Amino acid sequence: MHIHGGNVYKASQVYGIKAEDILDYSANINPLGLPEGLKELLISGFDSIVNYPDPEYTELKKYISGYLKVAEECIIPGNGATEIIYLLFETLKLKRILIPAPAFDEYAQAAHAAAIETDFFELKEENNFKLVVEELLDKIRYGYDAVMLCNPNNPTSTLLSREELYKILKFTSARGIYFIIDEAFIELTVGGNGNSMKDALVEFNNLFIIRAFTKIFAVPGLRLGYGLGNAGLVKEMWNRKMPWSINSLACSAARILENCGEYLEKTSQWLKEEKERFYRELSSIKGLKVFEPQTNFILIKILLPSLNVGTLKDYMGKKGILIRDASNFRFLNDKFFRVAIKDKKSNIRFQSLLKEIMESTGKLT
Known about the structure:
2 domains, 38% helix, alpha/beta
C-alpha cells in the first residue's frame, strides 16, 4: 500500500471540513504557490490536447537542459519522479540495493516490484538522523550493486554536502556500483541547485539523479519529473518507457524554466528566514524534540508518554490542520511526525495550536 501525505480529500470527509479550508502540513509544497506566468503557460497550451504529446518530449528536454546545463541525451522525463524510480529499477536489473533510512518508502516498493533485494542503512536518532558517510562506505563493501539516497532526505530534512556526496560517488564508481540520488527537494534548500550533483554527471557514469517539478513549483497534480544519467542508460530507459506518459499540458509547464530565476530567489529568501524562525518556535514547545531542518519540512518527536502521533493527528485534524504521521517510515515509531514549513501566517496558526495541545496534554500526565 502506498501511504503519502497530502490527502486533503479524505481529510475533508473524515473531519467534515471543506478541502479549501484545510491547512495541509502533511505535504511539502512551496508555499509561494505557482510561479508567475505558469498558469498562463498552461492555458496557452490547452489547444495542444487535440494532438498526442510529442513521444520524445523534445521541447521539455530542451528546457530542462537549459535550466540545469545538462545534455539533452542525458535527460528522461517522467510522470512524476515515481515513474522514473520504477523505470530505472526495471532497466538496471539490480540484484541488491542499499538504502539509508528512514526514507521515502517508494524506493523500497519500486525495488520490490523489480525483484531487487533491499537492505537498509539505519540513520540514527543519536546522530540527529544525519548520515555518517564512513559508516555507509563500510556497509557498501558487502556486495551491493546500487546505493540510493534522498538529498535532502525525506522525512529527516537532513542535507549531505557536495563533499560528502563526492566521497560516496568516488567510492561507488571505483567499484562499479550505481549511486542514485533523489533531489526532489534540492531547490528547496538554502543554496538551491548549488547543492545538486548534476555537474558530476559528465565525469561519473554510475551517477543517476531524480528530480521533479512537484515540490519547488507547487504542482503535485501536474505529475512531472525527470531523471538525469549517462546517455547509454538513459537510452535504455527510453526503450522501456511507456509512451505518452506525460500529457501535453504538463509538457507546456516546462517553459517556466526559462524565466524562473526571480521565483527561485524569492523561495530561497523565504526559506532562509522562515525555516529558522519556525524551527526556533517549535523547539520552544515543551514535550517535543524538534530536529533541525535543512529543507522545507521538519521532523518532530513527541516526548510525552501519554501522547502518540495518531492522537495528535486527530486533534489537529479536527481543527483543520493536517500533519504527516511518520510512524510508517522505517526505523521510526508512533512518536514521530513531519510538518511542512509554510508562510509565516499559517505557521503561527500551526504552532499556536500545537502548543495548546501539548500544554493541555502535559497537564494530564
